[in-house]
Amino acid sequence: MAHPVIIQGGMGAAVSNWELARAVSKLGALGVVSGTALASVIARRLQNGDPTGEMRRALANFPLPAVAERVLAAYYFPGGKAAAVPFAPNPLPVLQPGPALTELTVVANFAEVFLAKSGHPGVVGINLLEKIQLPTLASLYGAMLAGVDYVLMGAGIPRAIPGLLDLLAAGEPATQKIDVEGALPGEDFTIRFDPAAFWGGPPPRLLRPQFLAIVASATLAMTLARKSSGRVDGFIVEGDLAGGHNAPPRGPLQLDANGEPIYGLRDAPDLAKIRELGLPFWLAGSQARPDKLAAALGLGATGIQVGTAFAFCDESGVEPGLKRRMIQASRAGNARVFTDPSASPTGFPFKVAELSGTLSHAEVYAARERICDLGYLRQVYRKPEGGVGYRCPGESVESYVRKGGDGADTVGRKCLCNGLMATVGLGQVRANGTEPAIITAGNEVADLARLVDDGEEHYRAEDVIRYLRGATA
Fold first, then answer.
1. Of 212, 213, 222, which is closest to residue 270 (Cα–Cα)?
2. pTM score of the predicted model
3. CA distance 113 to 119
4. Strand segments (E) across 94-149
5. Could you give all domains of the chain from N- to C-terminal order, each with its CATH number?
6. What is the pLDDT of residues 246-255, one digit of tens each?
């Protein structure tokens, strides 16, 4: 099949929302929605009253009306909750989710993809993190019910995903192995999703989406191409300049004078070896220029993936005031991103854009109470007496240590779940105010101003596409 040349990155929790993905896909590129924390995203959109009616439109098209009605009954608040009222919680991801959490997750992913695909014939993808394992099967199934065309996954080794896509497309039960810290030899922990049980009868056969693995090395690409559970359809080759989570440098971690990880020649992916695999690949990480696109094509790539340039356009989910301030910072020449080696509970380096009033500033981080009430990045661990528990280095130190964690692992950790939800205007209301945002972006945030017309402080997704195609049209 002919793949799109430009892929819009799947960023944050609802940064790459359905509006952005739809705008990009309508222009002939691959629009991608972020699958991260979508259960919480749709629950909060509904509690805000769904002012545009789009969530309810998507739910009205869900193929099991009773399931959609239960989600609406649980979370929809006509007219929206008062601004000072906290969002009602939804169930946290667990190894054995109850029906309510499974239904919410399936419906949320269906809704985001359904809306992204509405009104055009273009293709749409969904981006998931391998590190966030517990919602994966229900998320994939919801997206596939809406006809998602591509699944993109990184932040780990997603070797099992291709085979799981095959099973879900055929309507067969799918079982995923879950990483459990402290598991004993021969001890397996799994999560299962059965389409027939979800439907209450024979499920339909679904489109098996193309699977693109996000990799940072030729070694990982070769492993996935040869040892995955099913067909890998291509790779997104991501360098250390990309936003969000970065692969850690090879070898012992070394930090520069600013406290950022040092990447060297060993960390540059061997494109010749990736090209020899014979599969399509796209280059990612500071690629958002026409000459970079032309160079990628010259190296045998199918195209490029672009994130940061799309993250701050009108259609993205980032709160408008934050977008404007980042564009202003770029124009003033003081937009900066810090590759934080300790911010993410996953242990992966995480790029944080520096902006006052956000978690990038020490005083904001220090003033925030350490609360883990969304739970997407929690680690599953084996309890000494058997069974599993859940802990996050971003929760209170006392709680983490009580659960058997090492207090040293909590130093500098930030709650990405709550911070990213705040970035898209869905921050939880606390006793001392709304959760502070955390903005992730690639190094190209410094160059956002090139996309903005003189006298303006905003730009659209079509401006990004037009700019990228300038040298290749």
1. 222
2. 0.96
3. 12
4. 124-129
5. 6-319+453-471 (3.20.20)
6. 888 888 889 9
